[in-house]
């Protein structure tokens, strides 16, 4: 029951519109549920994997002092709230690394359940004649897209029943798509490419020919029917989700901020800007933001385990799980 409830809360935590001053009842319930899960495992004398605490040690020894000092010196962009969010995320990562397959299975059931409920409610409430991002659920719809990608990874990790996996992926795909995030659609393309790679490696000729035919149809359709092309509405949707552009500028200014302190970073916060660095803007790229906050060391601590897992999934021919992980990473 508890893992199922945690699965529900993991998706519900994307409803940032319910938060007050950066937190809310869902985050508090999730924290309590995770703490209870740890307590139960302690009673069961579970053999914990403490490797994820490496990130917590770095946060407490290096990033926390830098954050507090920069906040005291009023360095633009420093944020103790971001520091606490990183510590909270590290705790969730520790729990995730210490879940059993049974835990993962029931977490997946919870994820699928709430996704289906949300999709049903949103679709019936959604005005498709006036496409708007899910601002009534989240002040940052990109977080909904990220949550949807995370849900796909959780489902691929926790379930083996193909019907449940397909159901969960469709529900997550719908939820993420309604956020109208261009990066989300790119991530879905990356996920699809890994599934296509699996088909190629397994030599499924019929499926390969079918996908090749579909690709040729999609490429030739705009040429054959220029007045009824599917590309123009997709481009319009992409531009509307881009929120006016400026991502290249944010990325460049983020990199500039990182280069001014490349080893240990500037502490927790947002250090990019629309004109110059240190304007309290995120770089719209998680890797760059992590580099500005914790330097090269923090980026390696965060990303190396992901790529080691990706290597393992590839060697085990778990391409759905591999694609889900790479889509999740690429979204950042």
Question: Can you describe this structure?
Answer:
This protein has 332 residues and is mainly alpha-helical. It contains 13 helices and no strands. The protein has helices spanning 2-12, 25-43, 53-72, 80-97, 101-125, 141-158, 162-177, 182-202, 205-224, 231-241, 247-259, 286-315, 319-331. α3 (53-72) packs antiparallel against α4 (80-97), α3 packs antiparallel against α12 (286-315) and α6 (141-158) runs antiparallel to α7 (162-177). The chain is globular. The two termini are 32 Å apart. The model has no long low-confidence stretch (mean pLDDT 81).
Strand content: under 5%
SS summary, helix count: 13
Helix content: over 70%
Mean pLDDT: 81
Rg, nearest Å: 21 Å
The largest β sheet comes out as: none
Q: What structural class do the secondary elements suggest?
A: mainly alpha
Low-pLDDT sequence parts: none
Overall body shape: globular
Task: Give the helices and strands as they follow along the chain.
Answer: HHHHHHHHHHHHH
What is the rounded distance between the termini? 32 Å
Tell me the total number of β-strands. 0
In short:
This protein is mostly helical and 332 residues long. It contains 13 helices and no strands.
Write the layout of secondary structure elements.
Layout: H1 2-12, H2 25-43, H3 53-72, H4 80-97, H5 101-125, H6 141-158, H7 162-177, H8 182-202, H9 205-224, H10 231-241, H11 247-259, H12 286-315, H13 319-331
């Amino acid at each position: 029951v508890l893992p199922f409830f945690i699965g529900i809360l993991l998706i519900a935590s994307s409803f940032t519109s319910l938060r007050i001053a950066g937190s809310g009842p869902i985050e508090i319930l999730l924290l309590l549920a995770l703490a209870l899960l740890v307590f139960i495992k302690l009673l069961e004398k579970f053999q914990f994997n403490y490797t994820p605490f490496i990130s917590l040690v770095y946060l407490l020894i290096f990033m926390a002092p830098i954050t507090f000092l920069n906040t005291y010196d009023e360095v633009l962009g420093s944020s103790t709230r971001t520091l606490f969010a990183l510590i909270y995320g590290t705790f969730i990562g520790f729990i995730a690394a210490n879940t059993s397959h049974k835990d993962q299975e029931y977490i997946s059931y919870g994820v699928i359940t709430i996704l289906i409920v949300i999709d049903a409610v949103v679709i019936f409430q959604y005005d498709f004649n006036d496409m708007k991002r899910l601002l009534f659920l989240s002040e940052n719809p990109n977080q909904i897209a990220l949550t949807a990608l995370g849900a796909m990874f959780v489902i691929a990790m926790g379930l083996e029943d193909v019907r449940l996996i397909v159901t969960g992926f469709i529900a997550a795909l719908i939820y993420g798509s309604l956020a109208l995030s261009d990066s989300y659609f790119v991530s879905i393309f990356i996920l699809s490419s890994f599934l296509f790679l699996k088909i190629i490696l397994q030599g499924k000729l019929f499926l390969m020919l079918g996908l090749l035919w579909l690709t040729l149809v999609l490429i030739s359709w705009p040429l054959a029917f220029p007045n009824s092309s599917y590309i123009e509405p997709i481009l319009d949707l992409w531009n509307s989700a881009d929120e006016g552009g400026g991502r290249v500028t944010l990325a460049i200014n983020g990199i500039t901020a990182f280069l001014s302190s490349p080893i240990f970073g500037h502490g927790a916060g947002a250090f990019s800007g629309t004109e110059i660095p240190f304007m309290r803007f995120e770089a719209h790229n998680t890797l760059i933001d992590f580099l500005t906050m914790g330097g090269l060391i923090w980026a390696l601590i965060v990303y190396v385990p992901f790529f080691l897992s990706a290597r393992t999934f590839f060697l085990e021919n778990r391409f759905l799980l591999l694609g889900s992980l790479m889509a999740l990473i690429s979204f950042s």
